[in-house]
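for the writeup, i need someone to sanity check this before i put it in the appendix. the sequnce is what the collaborator sent (i think, or maybe the updated version? ugh). structure was predicted straight from it, no edits. if anything looks off just tell me and ill rerun, i have time this weekend
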Amino acid sequence: MSQEKQVILEDSIRKIFSKEDLKQRLSSEDYERYQSATENVKFHKGEILFDEQDLPKSVFYLHKGTAKLSKQGAYGKEQILRFIKEGDIIGYRSLLCGENFQAKAEAMTDIEATMIPADLFMHLLEYDSKFSFVMLQKVAFELGESSNTVTFLAQKTVRERLAEILLLLEQKLGTDPEGFIKISLTREEIANLIGTATESAIRLISEFKQDHLIETEGRNIKILNHEKLIKLGHVVL
């Protein structure tokens, strides 16, 4: 999905959860139910929103902060699936499939979110057509992301993967006032994202710095040359 379409989807998700839009769309009874049943919750960095095999009891809409969705592999190694930022929603896939959570959601920063009970979420899907349509768009978007990830891991070199993942992280999460991508990742987490050993990721990051493609400050990364990274990663944004 292009950056423009991603922004449109993100705006649509924010709008369907805005108080003004909810009040306009829902019946007075459903709006009162939403107000009384939902709960504003906070998670500190490192806390778990939900874990693998937990029973889906709620869906989370993030107002502030970033979380990562990951899954444990056969040998106990964590695989990061995607990142969830403010204005995004998480926890609905397993609920819709009628199964326990198949992944873990962990706060990467402090998080503020609205917790929507499972029965209320399903009720909104059934009776709120606008809500259903936006959620359908989101499912389709994430299906496309999954297809791209398969191609990304299967056909690109590790160097190309690093270039692409840095661009995608910046596109999805944005940058701080100093231009650093708004997420602090360990070298092990970066290696996990691009499917390589931690040592290889460290070496590649060092090479990117020497080539003046990026700048690092601890765990934070700033892209210095977008054009070269786009060419290197054969990326279509």
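The chain is about 50% helix and 20% strand. The longest strand covers residues 78-85.
thx in advance!!
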